[in-house]
Design a protein that fits this description.
single chain, mainly alpha, Multidrug-efflux Transporter Regulator, Chain: A, Domain 2, three-stranded antiparallel sheet, 3 strands, 50% helix, 9% strand
Length: 107
């Protein structure tokens, strides 16, 4: 009985972690190389940011994995916004739209 209760409790906790789209994208883990592609920066900089504590990551026996939630937080907390390139896809109006585009592109 107690085991079933714990499983149900864990199930509820995971259910509560779903994002607004009902998916688990924020739980996905990315390599340093994939993270560098998503952020558009060199993988050496991603590694440095992890070691400096500016980007949260999980250390799996010396191999870092970066949760999508950490990537989103990093983007949201940027102090400056790079100049927007003119694109046929249209300008990114806000940070949430940018994050959604990144998630769709890399899912």
């Amino acid at each position: 009985m107690n085991n079933t209760m714990n499983q149900n409790q864990k199930s509820i906790e995971v259910e509560n972690q779903k994002d607004t789209a009902g998916s688990y994208n924020h739980l996905r883990l990315y390599s340093i190389n994939k993270t560098s592609q998503i952020l558009g920066i060199r993988h050496q900089l991603v590694r440095k940011m992890i070691l400096d504590g500016r980007l949260n990551a999980i250390d799996f026996d010396g191999k870092f994995k970066v949760p999508m939630a950490s990537i989103e937080d990093f983007i949201k907390n940027q102090q400056f916004q790079p100049e927007q390139k003119k694109s046929s896809r249209g300008p990114v109006r806000n940070i949430e739209e940018r994050i959604e585009r990144i998630i769709k592109r890399h899912s």
